[in-house]
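Handout, section B. The chain below has 295 residues.
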Amino acid sequence: MEEEKRSTAVTVVLLVICIVWSLPTIGLLVTSFRPEDDVSRTGWWTMVKDPSFTISNYRQVLAGKDFTYVNESGVEVTARTENLVRAFLNSVTVTVPAVVIPILIAAFAAYGFAWVYFPGRKLFFIIVVGLLVVPLQISLIPILRDYLALELTGSFLGIWLAHTGFGLPLAIYLMFNYISTIPRSILESAFIDGFTHFTIFTRLILPLSIPILASFAIFQFVWVWNDLLVAMVFLGTKRQVAVLTQRLFSMIGTLGQDYHLLTAGAFVSMVLPLIVFFSLQRFFVRGLLAGSVKY
């Protein structure tokens, strides 16, 4: 009886914590569907007494919003804000290669560290693990100087390389811990059958490593998709290559008074990461647990 009461109390406490933790997100979601006048006059919680919802906020964010201003000649001009569609596509263009490239490189490296014996193997692995504690912020300026010399700033190639370099240490560490747990007997049987290292890697290691690959893919995708600092440093202010986080940041300045549009834009940016997470979540916990044991 006491154990049941204790279990019920723990459940209630956890439920309350989840509700409190989710309240800001719920408030933003409700605000994104409320009319502009209601947002400026009342709080989101008033929708319980006076529910009024609209999808015009999302329509304006995705299609743009008309506004008027007075130019230098004193003439009133009507213009239209840039929508988020192009920025969304730019984010996809940046994120997908920035996830796939480090996964492939890290998988090859992890297999080499785990099952290919060569001089200095442990030393190189220690160096890779040591890079995990190096803050990426201290490397931005040196890399940017090299990019300026190579004319890579403002290009997708430059930011792909940057995200690949920043993500490789963690990827190699997680995948090494997973790949090194694969039974050695499987590899020995493959070698007896005449398989090369490359064949073993492509036909055995990669299929068996899907859980850890999916786990790191979630981490890398969410990090790159939500990144603002690296994008601002290496992509600059070019609107042609601006990603979603940059456009949302610029909306704070240009549409800071339109809070309802900012909330709608925030939820537009959440759609793809949620799809990726729920698509790969069945591998997530299994991959992390398997990648957290032994050297």
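Note. The CA atoms of residues 57 and 261 lie 6 Å apart. Compare this with the example in section A.
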